[in-house]
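Worked example 3 (structure in, sequence out).
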């Protein structure tokens, strides 16, 4: 036997090997049942598939021995003729275990068929070499199957993210189709979800996205990722114990999402509000993308920033949803509370935030102004004395005066 070519085996020995092929394949199956308890529990069709692969492997081995000077090129054929779902039903580890068992059976049964000691030694080496090539062929088949599944999953994931961004009703899509596709990717349809958007990282985005997925899995969450041009969109499931109704859009900071922000490129990262489930996630993605477009209006914004913390900038950019949220969160509750709260707030803000001047303009005591401003803070969650909150409150007052209802003119 040379270092690269096949061993030299006599025609008589080859004939013996051909006649023993059936018994050899059967002996392999018996050994597999003895050494791997799970093998005996396989359905009949899958056991038949393994038998077919084994028989083909034996035939290929004999053919290879008979081709002087030929390289091993038939090993993958043993797996190509197997049923298509066999690679999905058996793990790579299980397949390697079966190959190892088959190789051991070959080592026990083939050498006695040799005509002399030299031929016996050559058969032992040939079995080891052929077993190695079979294992490599199996790994290649599984790698190809994994790549195919990965490519399919990537396309399916892109479709799900696109459906969420555009709305499941677009192009005749249905919520059932959205849920079905997400479930095929391992997503829990009942999980609350929020969108996180930013720009893709330059350089090696695949590696960064892989690290991002590992971080999410380590946190016990699920994620769907879509790269659409110059924007990276994450749909992140919320922990089961979190109640979406009790979760404020602004309560998610870097500490909660851990290292997820590191998977984004430079620039703002915007977090949308919590949606009850995937079918309602369009609103979270819409708000997050609107915030991403408006984020340059607040250069000092934290990273990440909640979409609802960018309401003034979003409203100025023409976001009708932000306009309504400002009115509903500020003007509506203050007007409903009465007691001059809305007028007091307007006077205070438009007077430059001077407490005494506001009191004089309203002909009330400064303590009355203090009390009313505290009530404003209680009802809106915004402190009129804080510069950023003052901008939000004043923008809300202007929006209420304009009375504009742009509708959902917020196509992401």
């Amino acid at each position: 036997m040379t270092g690269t070519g096949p061993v030299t085996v006599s025609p008589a020995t080859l004939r013996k090997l051909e006649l023993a092929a059936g018994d050899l394949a059967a002996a392999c199956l018996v050994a597999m049942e003895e050494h791997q308890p799970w093998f005996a529990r396989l359905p009949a069709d899958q056991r038949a598939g393994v038998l077919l692969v084994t028989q083909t492997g034996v035939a290929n081995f004999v053919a290879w021995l008979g081709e002087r000077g030929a390289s091993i090129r038939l090993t993958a054929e043993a797996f190509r003729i197997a049923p298509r779902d066999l690679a999905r039903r058996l793990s790579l580890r299980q397949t390697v275990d079966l190959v190892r068992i088959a190789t051991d059976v070959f080592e026990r049964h083939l050498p006695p068929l040799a005509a002399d000691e030299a031929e016996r030694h050559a058969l032992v080496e040939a079995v080891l070499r052929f077993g190695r090539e079979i294992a490599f062929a199996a790994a290649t088949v599984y790698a190809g199957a994994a790549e195919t599944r990965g490519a399919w999953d990537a396309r399916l994931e892109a479709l799900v993210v696109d459906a969420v961004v555009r709305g499941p009703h677009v192009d005749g899509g249905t919520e059932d189709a959205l849920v079905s596709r997400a479930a095929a990717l391992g997503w829990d349809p009942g999980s609350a979800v929020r969108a996180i958007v930013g720009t893709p990282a330059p350089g090696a985005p695949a590696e960064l996205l892989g690290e991002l997925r590992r971080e999410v899995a380590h946190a016990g969450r699920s994620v769907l990722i879509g790269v659409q041009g110059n924007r990276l969109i994450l749909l992140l499931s919320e922990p089961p114990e979190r109640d979406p109704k009790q979760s404020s859009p602004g309560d998610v900071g870097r500490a909660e999402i851990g290292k997820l922000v590191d998977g984004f490129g430079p620039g703002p990262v915007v977090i949308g509000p919590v949606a009850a489930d995937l079918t309602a996630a369009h609103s979270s993605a819409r708000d997050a993308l609107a915030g991403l477009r408006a984020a340059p209006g607040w250069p000092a914004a934290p990273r990440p920033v909640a979409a609802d913390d960018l309401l003034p900038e979003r409203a100025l950019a023409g976001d009708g949803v932000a306009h309504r949220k400002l009115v509903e969160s500020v003007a509506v509750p203050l007007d409903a509370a009465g007691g001059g709260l809305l007028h007091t707030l307007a006077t205070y803000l438009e007077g430059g935030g001077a407490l005494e001047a506001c009191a004089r303009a309203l002909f009330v005591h400064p303590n009355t102004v203090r009390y009313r401003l505290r009530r404003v803070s209680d009802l809106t969650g915004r402190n009129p004395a804080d510069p950023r909150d003052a901008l939000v409150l004043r923008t809300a007052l202007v929006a209420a005066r304009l009375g504009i209802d742009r509708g959902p003119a917020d196509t992401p």
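Notes: The longest strand covers residues 231-237. Residues 1-7, 243-255, 406-412 have pLDDT under 50 and may be disordered.
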